[in-house]
Write a structure and sequence with these properties.
Length: about 80
């Protein structure tokens, strides 16, 4: 309640708190996104010691992909066995 009163008394500071709060939320959300979606980040070695082997040939795991045709062309490729 005191914070709302402070913002009403100083309305010019509202964007500062809004963007600082958004930045803090993004600073927490992006690493959590990386931990959940990227197979090269390994946290649980007991259940899945090689998570990068789950990535398919045609699956893009990059955040920004400049050449999406590369992954589309790999869709019918056979998975290599070593």
């Amino acid at each position: 309640m005191a914070f709302a009163t402070f913002i009403r008394a100083n309305p010019a500071l509202a964007p500062l708190f809004l963007f600082a709060g958004g930045g803090c939320a993004a600073a927490v959300a992006y690493p959590l996104y990386l931990l959940r979606t990227h197979p090269e980040i390994n946290i649980d070695r007991r259940n899945n010691p090689f998570p990068w082997q789950r990535v398919q040939q045609h699956e893009n795991i990059k955040f920004i992909n400049m050449v999406p045709e590369f992954y589309e062309g790999r869709k019918d490729m056979k998975r290599p066995s070593y």
